[in-house]
Amino acid sequence: VFLNDEDEIVDLNPAAEKIFSCKKRDQLGKPITNILHDFIEIKEALRNKTESVVEINPSQKNTSYEIKISSLKKESGKKYGSLIMLWDITELKTAFYELDAYAHTVAHDLKTPIGHMVGYANLLQNIPADDPEREKLLENIVAGGLKMTSIIDELLKLAEIRSLDPKSGEQ
Predict the structure, then answer these.
(1) Is the dihedral of CA 61, 63, 64, 69 positive or negative?
(2) pLDDT of 118-156, one tens digit each?
């Protein structure tokens, strides 16, 4: 969206028409505030007259946008308008949420065997070398190490698969 120095709409592209639910022909020359009724964050950023990046979540849509507002200035430094750029970051936010949930699960899955291994090692310190219970505890420590190795191997496989180019299958 391009605005003049009075924050009136000079141009808006089809994507902006869709996001703001308006038609370009109806908005040209009108104040940007006409189409910002659900976008308080943009209004505030424009009011501050500084370059800023804000994130918005329109109430009527299940989407998130990152918005960058830049002042357009002449060589003299005088502002002659603003440029509002919008990026749909809905999928990115969803991916970050899923990654956080996955990291939480993996951390828990690794923490459990580590806790067991530390517990068994602590018990071993108090058991004589010839006690048959000692062998059982050592087996449990090895099993915990193998479980963690398996989890890490699966993570590495996932990272490798995700790094492949989906079109060619090559990295």
Answers:
(1) negative
(2) 998 898 888 888 888 888 889 999 998 998 898 888 888
Q: How far apart are CA 120 and CA 57, in angstroms?
A: 50
Q: How far is CA 105 from CA 59, 102, 115, 116, 151, in A?
A: 31, 5, 15, 17, 11
CA dihedral 124, 129, 134, 138 (to 10 degrees): 70
C-beta of residue 43 within 8 angstroms of C-beta of residue 33: yes
Tokens of 4: 């003049």
In this model, does residue 11 exceed pLDDT 90? yes
Q: Is 168 helix (H, G, I), strand (E, B) or coil?
A: coil
Q: What predicted TM-score, i.e. pTM, was given to this entire model?
A: 0.57
Q: Which residue blocks in the chain are alpha helix, DSSP H? A: 14-20, 24-27, 40-48, 90-125, 132-163
Average of per-residue pLDDT values in the chain: 82
Among residues 57, 46, 107, 106, which one has the least CA distance to residue 82?
Answer: 46
- Residue 97 has, within 13 A of its CA and on its CB side, a CA count of 6
For the chain, what is the largest distance between any 2 Cα atoms, rounded to a whole number of angstroms?
90
Q: Which structure tokens are listed for 78?
A: 């005088």
What 3-state DSSP class applies to 65?
Answer: strand
